[in-house]
Write a structure and sequence with these properties.
The complex is a heterodimer. Chain A has two domains: 179 residues, Rossmann fold, CATH 3.40.50; 134 residues, Nucleic acid-binding proteins (OB fold (Dihydrolipoamide Acetyltransferase, E2P)). Chain A has ten helices and 20 strands. Chain A has a six-stranded mixed beta sheet with strand order 6-7-8-3-9-10, sandwiched between helices. A five-stranded mixed barrel of chain A has the order 11-12-13-20-14. The longest helix of chain A has 18 residues. Among the domains of chain B are: 45 residues, no CATH class; 115 residues, MetI-like (MetI-like fold), CATH 1.10.3720.10. Chain B has nine helices and no strands. Chain B is mainly α. The chains are: A alpha+beta, B mainly alpha. The interface between A and B is medium-sized, with 26 and 20 residues.
């Protein structure tokens, strides 16, 4: 292992076999500094700063029009930034044309050359680099094997399935041993099952070859599943750049919380720090706890809570200790943390789990009940509770 | 049960002649999209067959007959044996070839240009492209007579810089110019259709793999002409 790959994050903890190949990934360190770009009079990228370590798998995640593809195209050299610097391994390539950069790109449409066979497509980058025919054939065969398309070299793209085209595009991008692998929504044209399978394959392949990779997607599941780090983008800026766990559990902004996964948003008033989290008053009477993101809010400040549906537990109202939520003794009780009372409004069976909607003083709270748990009846009085570390608290925007 | 299965197979009703089982309705005869299309096109086909195809066949038929109606090859031997007719034939083909070439040279860049424009701009530019077809042939010809004539604006341009204007009318060049003017739309429209089917990502894909912009051919030149108007060769 090199120093560079150590920083990649826990997801990439490599097996022995990985270490051998990934040790090669000392190149492909990408730095973006203050990138701005306007298209058609509208500023679509507004100050992107980003550093990627060699071998890292980073995802640019955001809704359409957030500037993620534009950013990728500036890395690829298809667009010139209005201002800012693109550096690879310390070299400024901002003004270097695409054909003189070493980027392997996979397009949403795959962009396979329809008049060339699969093998010719894959070897195209080598042909442009004036690699001899014999070596081209050998390396194309290797690349085909790498993506599991052995023996398909003589076919034409139109004779391939979506998944096979996708693999061909990947082999074509990787054969030139690029500094960076750029994936522009590569899975969005595939059906749901194939999409999941291929993204796992791509992630595994990336770990094997160790090429620094940027994936552009609007699919948060995809981003969470494959990335070392995720940059959540909206309106041309990065809202949060962190490992998937942190992005999901500790969203930095309102946008991140709502875009990545489902979330309950509750507005309340900060009510002082407690031993295991920050207290927060919802409505007039209910106290809940959460963990502040960043600096803790002062008492009486308007705050916003984010709780994932799967973190919410729906408890029966305890008959023995009714409405004792605000007493000082609450903090001592570990079994029943304070919660938000409400009425079950709807339950929906979703196969692996049950979704339960509870009407509370702070609006609807959605809870995902794990498989096999007892489902409360409609109209039943319940308490929505969660562990303080599963709810994050920010100042209300 | 057996009856149900059979009905599903095809339009045949209960083979034993008994009434079909209750609940099994008589299957609707399905008309394929091909048949529906033919039905919709039949009025147009009828008009064309009567007024265009039939006369053509009559022409071919009559060409093998004398005035009296006897079969003959005389018309053809006379046509091919006479050097005047042969010259006219070659001249026609020659003008046609030049016009095609002219349309290609003018039309291909225009089609490539149109490909990148907004739908609105494309509509306006297509209208400009089609405008010669909306003007009567006589008007168009007189227009060119004025433009290319010895006192026309082009000749004036030559005179203005002290040159003698070349003769631009009543020769092959003038004919080809006029023909290109009219026929350009027939070149550009199909080219636009083909170019639109090319994935716009192919160009950046090729460039990203090392193809320099504007390079004509990277490998064997033999592949370029027959493989359509692909931006990647």
């Amino acid at each position: 292992m090199t120093a560079g790959t150590d920083t990649v994050g826990k997801e990439s903890a490599p097996t022995g076999a990985d270490t051998a190949t990934r040790a090669g990934s000392t190149r492909g360190r990408l730095v973006l500094k203050g990138i701005h770009k306007a298209l058609g009079g509208k500023e679509v990228v507004r100050g992107i700063d980003l550093t990627m370590e060699p071998g890292e798998f980073l995802t640019l995640l955001g809704p359409s029009g957030c500037g993620k593809s534009t950013t990728l195209n500036m890395v690829a050299g298809h667009l010139l930034p209005d201002s800012g610097v693109v550096e690879v391994d310390g070299r400024d390539i901002t003004r270097l044309p695409a054909n003189r950069r070493a980027m392997g790109m996979v397009f949403q449409s795959y962009a396979l050359f329809p008049h060339m066979t699969v093998a010719e497509n894959i070897a195209f980058g080598l042909r442009m680099r004036k690699v001899g025919a014999a070596q081209r054939r050998r390396r194309a065969a290797e690349a085909l094997e790498l993506v599991g398309l052995d023996g398909m070299g003589e076919r034409y793209p139109r004779q391939l399935s979506g998944g096979q085209r996708q693999r061909t595009a990947l082999a074509r991008a990787l054969i030139v041993e690029p500094d960076l692998l750029l994936l522009d929504e590569p899975f969005s044209n595939l059906d749901a099952q194939l999409r999941v399978r291929l993204r796992e394959e791509v992630a595994a392949l990336q770990r094997r070859v160790g090429t620094t990779t940027i994936l552009v997607t609007h699919d948060q599941d995809e981003a969470l599943a494959v990335s070392d780090r995720i940059a959540v983008m909206a309106e041309g800026t990065i809202h949060q750049l962190d490992v998937p766990e942190t992005v999901y559990l500790r969203p930095a902004t309102d946008f991140v919380a709502q875009f990545v996964g489902e979330v309950n948003v509750l507005d309340g008033i900060a009510a002082g720090a407690a031993a295991d989290g920050h207290r927060c008053r919802i409505g007039d009477t209910h106290l809940v706890r959460a963990t502040p993101v960043g600096t803790a809010p002062g008492d009486g400040e308007a705050v916003r809570l984010y709780v994932r549906p799967e973190a919410v537990r729906v408890l029966a109202v305890p008959q023995a200790v009714p409405e004792k939520g605000r007493s000082a003794s609450t903090a001592d009780r570990t079994a029943a943390e304070p919660g938000l009372p409400g009425t079950v409004e709807a339950t929906r069976f979703l196969g692996t789990r049950v979704r339960c909607v509870v009407a509370t003083a702070a609006g609807r709270v959605e809870a995902t009940l794990p498989f096999g748990s007892e489902v409360p009846g409609l109209g039943e009085e319940v308490i929505c509770a969660w562990q303080p570390q599963h709810a994050s608290l920010t100042a209300r925007p | 049960m057996a009856a149900t299965a059979r009905v599903a197979d095809g339009p045949a009703l209960s083979p034993d002649g008994s009434a079909p089982a209750p609940g099994v309705s008589r299957p609707v005869k399905e008309r394929g999209p091909w048949r529906t299309g033919l039905l919709l096109a039949s009025p147009a086909i009828a008009v064309l067959a009567l007024l265009f195809i039939a006369p053509l066949f009559m022409l071919v038929y009559n060409s093998f007959r004398t005035q009296a109606g006897d079969p003959t090859l005389h018309n053809y031997t006379r046509f091919l044996g006479d050097s005047f007719y042969r010259d006219v034939l070659w001249h026609t083909l020659w003008i046609g070839a030049l016009t095609t070439l002219g349309c290609l040279v003018v039309g291909y860049p225009f089609a490539v240009y149109l490909r990148g424009r907004s739908p609105r701009a494309r509509n306006y530019l297509s209208l400009v492209l089609l405008s010669p077809l909306l003007i009567s042939m006589v008007t168009r010809a007189y227009g060119w007579l004025v433009l290319l004539g010895p006192k026309g604006p082009i000749a004036d341009g030559f005179h203005a810089v002290g040159l003698e204007a070349p003769k631009m009318l009543y020769d092959d060049t003038a004919v080809v110019v006029g023909m290109v003017h009219v026929m350009l739309a027939y070149m550009v429209l199909p080219l636009m259709g083909s170019l639109d089917r090319i994935d716009p990502a192919l160009t950046p894909a090729a460039k990203g793999l090392g193809r320099a912009a504007g390079r004509v051919s990277g490998g064997s030149p033999s592949r370029c002409p027959c493989r359509g108007c692909s931006p990647v060769r």
